[in-house]
Write a structure and sequence with these properties.
single chain, 6 helices, 194 residues, mainly alpha
Length: 194
C-alpha cells in the first residue's frame, strides 16, 4: 500500500489523534466511555502514516492526554511510575509492526488477515512490555514473583489485546470497503472511457 500524502495523510492523522483523544480517558463520563484505542492507534499509525516524526508526535500526545486526565479530570496516577518510561517502547512495537506490514497491506482478504495477525502479535508483545515493566519496575508490588506476574498478565492481557484487536478489525473492514469502492470507481471510469 502506498503511503498517503497531502490531504489524505492529514485526514488519517487527524482521525487517529481524535480516536486517541476520545478514548484515552473518561472525559465523557462512564456511560459514553469507549475502551482506550491507544494501542490500536499506534499500530494503525504505523501502517498508514509510517513517518518516524508522527510516531514521536503520537507518543507526546499520549503523555499530554495522561497528564491532562490526571491533573484536571481526576484520573488516578496509580500507573504513573518509573515503568511509565517503557510506554514508548511498548508503543514502538505496535507502530513499527504496522510500518513493517504496510507494504503488504491491500484490500484483498489475505493481506488484511495478515495485518490482523501482525497486529495481534504486536499487541501481545506490546502489552507484555508495558505490563511487565509496570509489574517488575513500578514499585507497586512489594514481593514480585513470576507466578504472580503470570497471573496478572493473564488477568489483564486478554482485555487489552481484545480491545486493540476490535479497533484494528474495524479499521481493516473500513480499509477493505474503501479499497473495494476505489476499485469499483476505477473500473467504472475505464468502462466509460471504452
Amino acid at each position: 500500500m502506498k503511503m498517503p500524502t497531502g490531504p489524505r495523510f492529514a485526514a488519517l492523522a487527524l482521525l487517529l489523534v481524535l480516536m486517541m483523544a476520545a478514548t484515552r480517558f473518561k472525559h465523557f463520563g462512564d456511560m459514553l466511555h469507549l475502551p482506550d484505542a491507544s494501542m490500536a492507534v499506534f499500530f494503525l499509525g504505523g501502517a498508514y502514516l509510517r513517518r518516524h516524526w508522527m510516531f514521536a508526535l503520537m507518543v507526546v500526545l499520549a503523555v499530554v492526554l495522561d497528564w491532562v486526565s490526571i491533573s484536571y479530570a481526576g484520573v488516578s496516577d496509580f500507573c504513573v511510575t518509573a515503568a511509565y518510561a517503557f510506554l514508548p517502547l511498548a508503543y514502538a512495537v505496535l507502530w513499527y509492526a504496522g510500518r513493517w506490514y504496510a507494504p503488504k497491506l491491500h484490500g484483498q482478504f489475505r493481506p488484511l488477515a495478515g495485518a490482523f495477525g501482525a497486529a495481534l502479535v504486536a499487541s501481545v508483545v506490546s502489552f507484555a512490555v508495558s505490563n511487565g515493566s509496570f509489574y517488575w519496575l513500578g514499585g507497586r508490588y512489594p514481593d514480585p514473583n513470576v507466578a504472580q506476574y503470570l497471573a496478572r498478565l493473564w488477568q489483564w492481557g486478554p482485555l487489552f489485546v481484545r480491545t486493540t484487536m476490535g479497533y484494528v478489525a474495524a479499521a481493516l473492514i473500513v480499509h477493505a470497503v474503501c479499497a473495494r469502492l476505489a476499485a469499483h470507481s476505477v473500473s467504472q471510469h475505464h468502462h466509460q472511457e471504452a
